[in-house]
Design a protein that fits this description.
There is one protein chain. This protein is an alpha/beta fold. The chain folds into 2 domains: 28-271, Rossmann fold; 294-530, Rossmann fold, CATH 3.40.50.1820. Helices cover 33% and strands 18% of the residues. The strands form 3 sheets. The chain has a 9-stranded mixed sheet, sandwiched between helices. Strands 2-1-4-3-5-6-7-8 form an 8-stranded mixed sheet, sandwiched between helices. Helix 11 (353-378) crosses helix 12. The structure holds 2-acetamido-2-deoxy-beta-D-glucopyranose. Residues 222, 224-225, 228 line the site of 2-acetamido-2-deoxy-beta-D-glucopyranose.
């Protein structure tokens, strides 16, 4: 027995060393839709081929990747394509890599390349057709589950959901390109022949071990049979709602050992599979991160494939203030992002403005160092960040930006503070980010009284906001506007000659620009004015 295993391993090394090259005809993309559920339209990775197909940009897309020893017409696709098309009107693109899949070690050696071919196809959809990877799920079986991870990891952008069906074991334990939970926002894994054909240890955000993960009911000790159940269950999870069936409800386990020993007693509630986009994340309860604490970071849901938003509150505020709760809700609803709330309340809660300002500067430097540490440990880059600060936290956001070079992608200052900042070298500057924006809502009282950023908005003249009867209310309106702009856009501003014109509401410049929003308006500059409503929706369009 041992000699056989040794031979298999040697063989796989030999094939890997030879470096098989996938030819243009070795990977074919087969499109199935509700109008052609049985007969595929083969797509080439070219603009023309996709443009003339029945690929629909308004629908979600499911990519399926079969295992070795199979082709596009195998059992796996027969189950999964049918189930996906029944559950939802989607594009299903079944990837046929059968010429490279003939036997295990040969197929294994082809996975890094297969993943990259799929990644460039997804990039093509994005760059030529404006089809965001956000609409894509990748479901892979066996070796195809690892290829799903490699594909997702290599695209420009972020895949929200990978379904890994009994990912393969042999050759992967020390493989540098093994499926990982960082490959997509949610990596969901089902183990049905764990330790035999399938990978034993958890690999994703969610790892399901039905019946202990190794022997499925009805298969005895036949691992080929158990492996097949991974996609049988998955297909059933997609159609169960239509067929009035039961869902696959998981019970949380403390450990992998408890999962394989059927000894899990945690909460019941997480459901395997299904057609909905899954979010395992923590929108309400935070996970504290500390500088230089790698343990906390690795146990957190932080993912470097997402953009990261850093929120820095203002004077007398804390992590639970309105500034944080309003923006957190809007940001997480709009995009799958990491949101990091900076709690510097022990430095901001003082009536001595000098003390608060000094603390804002040291806190800004601590945040800048934290971001550098985070990037070193996760591979995130400054361009992925959006830093948003309010009041004295607005200047702090700028300080973070000025300390971290080359440069952050996007910084927003919401009515950065006035007192103590006029002659302060640390105050918000246009160069603090590649794109910096300030929204002035209480100009000259709580808020700074001149332009500070590449783009300065003076909604309603920048001093007094409709619907407000106090300076405090005016000062807080900025984050309400920003949250609404993130949720629903709007807030079209008109260019002003300068801030005097903005305050006097005399702006007739030729350029228009939206205030706020999720994406940085890199390259834009100037001063802008707009009017708002007194109540939500604040935007007048
Ligand atoms: C194991 O299961 C597979 C799939 O159900 C089947 O084709 C095969 O014959 C089974 N092998 C044995 C030894 O029973």
């Amino acid at each position: 027995m041992w000699t056989i295993i040794k031979c298999v391993l040697l063989l796989s090394v030999a094939v890997a060393a030879h470096g098989y090259v996938l030819g243009p005809r070795d990977v074919v993309f087969h499109l199935f839709t509700r109008s052609n559920p049985q007969v595929s339209e083969p797509l080439l990775p070219s603009e023309g081929s996709i443009a003339t197909s029945s690929f629909q940009r308004t629908r979600r897309t499911i990519f399926t990747i079969h295992n070795y020893g199979e082709g596009v017409g195998g059992n796996f696709n027969a189950f999964v394509i049918r189930a996906h098309l029944l559950a939802e009107d989607v594009n299903v693109i079944a990837i046929d890599w059968s010429p490279a899949a003939s036997f295990y070690s040969y197929a294994l050696a082809n996975m890094p390349q297969l993943g990259r071919v799929i990644a460039s196809f997804i990039d093509l959809l994005d760059s030529r057709f404006g089809y965001s990877p956000d609409n894509i799920r990748i479901a892979g079986l066996g070796l195809g589950a690892h290829a799903a991870g490699i594909a997702a990891r290599n695209i420009n952008g972020n895949i929200p959901h990978i379904v890994a069906l009994d990912p393969s074991l042999v050759g992967w334990t020390h493989h540098p390109e093994i499926l990982s939970k960082d490959d997509a926002s949610v990596v969901e894994v089902i183990h049905t022949s764990a330790g035999a054909e399938g990978y034993d240890k958890p690999l994703g955000d969610l790892d399901f071990y039905p019946n202990g993960g190794t022997f499925m009911a009805g298969c005895g000790t036949n691992s080929t049979c158990s492996h097949i159940y991974s996609y049988v269950y998955y297909a059933e999870s997609l159609t169960t709602e239509l067929e009035n069936g039961k869902k696959f409800v998981g019970t949380a386990c403390d450990s992998y050992e408890n999962a394989i020993n059927l000894a899990c007693q945690g909460e019941r509630g997480v459901i395997f599979g299904g057609s909905a986009v899954k979010r395992t994340e923590n929108p309400r309860v935070s996970q504290p991160l500390m500088p230089n604490n790698v343990n906390l970071l690795s146990r957190s849901n932080y993912k470097s494939i997402r953009r990261t938003i850093v929120l820095i509150h203002g004077w007398m505020n804390s992590a639970t203030s309105n500034f944080n709760s309003v923006l957190l809700r809007a940001l997480l609803a709009a995009e799958d992002v990491n949101v990091i709330v900076v709690d510097w309340s022990s430095g901001s809660n003082s009536l001595q403005y000098r003390e608060v300002n000094a603390n804002a500067i040291s806190s800004g430097s601590a945040v800048a160092q934290f971001i550098n540490w985070l990037n070193q440990n996760t591979g995130s880059v400054l361009a992925q960040y959006h830093i948003i600060g309010h009041g004295v936290g607005g200047h702090q956001a700028g300080i973070v930006g000025s300390l971290n070079l080359p440069v952050h992608g996007y910084i927003t200052g919401l009515d950065p503070a006035l007192i103590g900042w006029v002659n302060n070298i640390y105050r918000f500057r246009p160069s603090d980010a590649l794109y910096s924006e300030v929204i002035h809502t209480n100009y000259g009282v709580f808020g700074y009284l001149a332009d500070l950023a590449k783009v300065d908005f003076y909604p309603n003249g920048g001093i007094s906001m409709p619907g407000c009867d106090s300076n405090g209310c005016d000062h807080e309106r900025g984050f309400q506007y920003l949250a609404e702009s993130i949720a629903s856009g709007g807030f079209r501003g008109r260019e002003c000659m300068n801030y005097y014109a903005a305050v006097l509401r005399m702006c007739n410049g030729p350029r228009q620009l939206q205030m706020g929003g999720l994406e940085p308006k890199t390259g834009a500059s100037g001063v802008y004015f707009l009017e708002t409503n007194a109540q939500p929706p604040f935007s007048q369009g």
